Amino acid sequence: MSTGLEQLYQQIILDHAKARHGSPLREHDGVGRVGESHQLNPVCGDEITLRAGVADGAVTAVSWDGAGCAISMASASVLTDLVQGLPRDEVIGLVDSFREVMRSRGRIEADEEVLGDAAAFSGVSRFPARVKCAMLAWVALEESLLAANA
Amino acid sequence: MPVVDTPVTLTPSDAVLTDAEVHRIRNDFPILGTEVNGKPLIYLDSGATSQNPVSVLEAEQEFYEQRNAAVHRGSHSLAVDATDAYEDARAAVARFVGARTDELVWTSNATEGINLVAYAMSNASLGRGGEAARRFALGPGDRVVVTEMEHHANLIPWQELAARTGAELRFIPVADDGTLRLEEAAAVITPATKLVAFSHASNVLGTINPVARLVRLAQDVGALTLLDACQSVPHLPVDVKALDVDFLVFSGHKMLGPTGIGALYGRAELLNALPPFLTGGSMITTVTMERAEYLPSPNRFEAGTQRISQAIALGAAANYLAETGMERIEAWEETLGARLVRGLGAIEGIRVLGPDAGRPRIGLASFDVDGVHAHDVGQFLDDKGIAVRVGHHCAQPLHRRLGLTATTRASTYLYTTTDEVDAFLDAVALVRPFFGAHR
After folding, report:
1. How confident is the model at residue B14 (pLDDT cuts 50, 70, 90)?
2. Claim to verify: residue B337 and residue B303 sit in the same structural domain
3. Is any Cβ of chain A less than 8 angstroms from the Cβ of B435?
């Protein structure tokens, strides 16, 4: 197998694509204000509905339903593990860092200290056609947090 | 002009194509010798866009280097030369599909051809074109019929036309095996039907639709017919008169030509009664500050400076295909299509869409891989230099009907070898193990 494909589909991504932490979508009663977002990639039909709860300035819960490729599903799973319990502002910073890496065309290597398992998606940035797949859940989270604050 | 590079190495006969001959054909296509991701390119996406032979590339370049001028205006020598080349190309493409020269209208692509008819009917519905255009007018109580397997290009223009005019849009459903449910077609195509628009061959399923039966059903109720021939004109012999359709559209870039050029065929009597869609220069006879009179077909529908070099290159493409022989290309792709269907069907966890092996199908196959998303399948194949199409192939309703959101499609052409099909099949067999989807 060429290095390109292995860089893209790291084992951690393949594992998360199956494990799908945070799926299915839940009601999130009593976790604070809940926001929801639905995102669709019209190019391939990948979609996700994500709910996030916010209380006392922290992300208290995340859950989602999705259908899509390994990259998009694994990204949602990794994100769920990463952000639960973190301060809302820090989560927004993580979304920005992840987006910066994804848009870098391979120039920026993700900091594992900051992004944890999500650093495994660094290889995706070399495949511009797949960046939207990786970003889908992160955009849904960003919009859910905005909705929860509204 | 036009430059026609007859493939001299071809056996000038109706003998079936062989791998050896296909290898010679490949030499005419520079891109087929390139590498992708360090592997020789295996191009199985001709259903989306085909590659170009040198004769097509040279025709376009030669035009710009030696004949570039606006056509149908100006009287200098270059303008006359350019006009001749442009009209020769029209004649070549018209001949290729059995149309009269004045029945072939240049468009950007098939999508524009369908929109041209839809907007012209819209204009007729507003009373434009007078009495002669009344047969194209739609209103409440009228019906437009499509099929459930249409490409979005042959669906959305009719949705919009129905919405603008108050007509209703109905469809002929697709059966589980990827064929049209003809027993329901007769119920859907009622006397209220003004137009039946359907594809000759499905870009997803590969199904070849029974044109004659659908045309008869339409004619029995006095409805017009429009055939989306994007996936048939490049791949099998098509004769518009034998098909007896009223309108037919196709795209140049799917038949060895460049992008930006396609054609609309219409029966002359209809085209000359149809009100224009785009208006402006070159499509008129007399213009006052209040009104204008229009030229007959095809110029009636060709407003503004046209896609001259593209048209000339498409003429060269049609000639290349005609020289090779459409019957031979059809037979070759039938072999490749059957090989694809049989090979894919033998791999565990693969569901092939469309007709079973042995039933009519063009040389393409779309499939679902159990446990692996089409995008991931495409990425895996791309790593091996294999180009396929993934997604809904601009046919969301059909995918929804089949319970899928995205599939992978391999589509062949005259330059595809059996070795390439086999290499593709070998690679597909590795997909589920790689993604851990096999049990």
Report:
1. low
2. no
3. yes
